[in-house]
Q: What sequence folds into this?
């Protein structure tokens, strides 16, 4: 499995507008992601698959200003705790069922990237912005099972 920071190093110097990006996120890759955010401003879809050790290292409240503020075209942002489920399918991010925090993040993130229509902060469920302008949770698992157990970074132009 490659580490996300390796892919991100290559993307930093790329002149090709990247539209979709999926990265296995270690603490090092998370830091790198924040560094290159201004260089990947064409992203429309971003999937961050968090390494197990990120449960305590990642702070979802810092992602908006540090990352999403640089991605004006983003319509899909998915933060996956899928790798945690390798050990136990009931494990999720500590905020996975904190609807209050997630609703605050929806408002904040949408302020940074107003085109957002689909967001998730766990693989347990995701949020969808509907025609009435409101966010609705729905029980759709983001990652298919094969991705949980055989993840690799993905880049689409």
A:
């Amino acid at each position: 499995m490659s580490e996300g920071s390796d892919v991100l190093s290559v993307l930093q110097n790329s002149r090709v507008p990247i539209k979709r990006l999926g990265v296995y996120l270690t603490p090092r890759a998370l830091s790198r992601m924040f560094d290159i955010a201004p260089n990947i401003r064409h992203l429309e879809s971003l999937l961050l698959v968090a390494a197990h050790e990120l449960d305590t290292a990642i702070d979802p409240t810092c992602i908006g200003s540090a990352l999403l503020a640089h991605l004006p075209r983003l319509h899909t942002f998915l933060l996956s705790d899928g790798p945690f489920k390798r050990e136990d399918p009931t494990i999720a991010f500590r905020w996975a069922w904190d609807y209050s925090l997630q609703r605050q993040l929806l408002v904040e993130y949408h302020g940074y990237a107003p085109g957002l229509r689909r967001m998730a902060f766990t693989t347990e469920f995701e949020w969808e912005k509907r025609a009435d302008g409101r966010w609705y949770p729905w029980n759709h698992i983001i990652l298919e099972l094969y991705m949980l157990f055989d993840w690799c970074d993905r880049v689409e132009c």
Helices lie at 4-12, 27-36, 54-57, 60-66, 99-112, 145-149.
